[in-house]
Amino acid sequence: MSSPYELRTNDNGKSKKQSMAELKLRRLTEMNQRLTEDLNRRRIPVSEASMDLIAFTDKEPKDFMVPSRWGSIDKRDDPYAPQQQGGCCTIM
């Protein structure tokens, strides 16, 4: 007769505790791998990233939302300015 506290075994003959331990080990191994990849990722100081961003904005097309950087522009060239309508209504 088996004791009431005997561990049950699955089809492979492994105990439930052993399979749970293997699952924990696999999860920890995967987490360790992700953390190692994160640690090896290239990092740069904020000052260098800021300078890169400023250099990028100097090369790209003008941003009309920053007039202090690019100066004021003509209203007809501004895509963000309200468009002038021919009248008070639009017929569709």
TrEMBL record:
Main location per the UniProt record: membrane
One of the Pfam families matching this protein, by short name: G-gamma
Annotated InterPro entries: G-protein_gamma-like_dom, GGL_sf, Ste18_fungal
Annotated keywords: Lipoprotein, Membrane, Methylation, Palmitate, Prenylation, Transducer
Compositional bias (Polar residues): 82-92
Compartments reported by the entry: Membrane
Membrane-related topology note: Peripheral membrane protein
G protein gamma domain mapped to chain residues: 21-92
Protein family: Belongs to the G protein gamma family.
The protein, known as: Guanine nucleotide-binding protein subunit gamma
Species for this entry: Friedmanniomyces endolithicus
Chain spans, region Disordered: 1-20, 71-92
GO BP term, example: pheromone-dependent signal transduction involved in conjugation with cellular fusion
Record's subunit section: G proteins are composed of 3 units, alpha, beta and gamma.
Gene Ontology MF annotations: G-protein beta-subunit binding
Top-level taxonomic group: Eukaryota
PANTHER family: GUANINE NUCLEOTIDE-BINDING PROTEIN SUBUNIT GAMMA
Entries under SMART domains matching the protein: G_gamma
A Gene Ontology term for the protein's cellular component: heterotrimeric G-protein complex
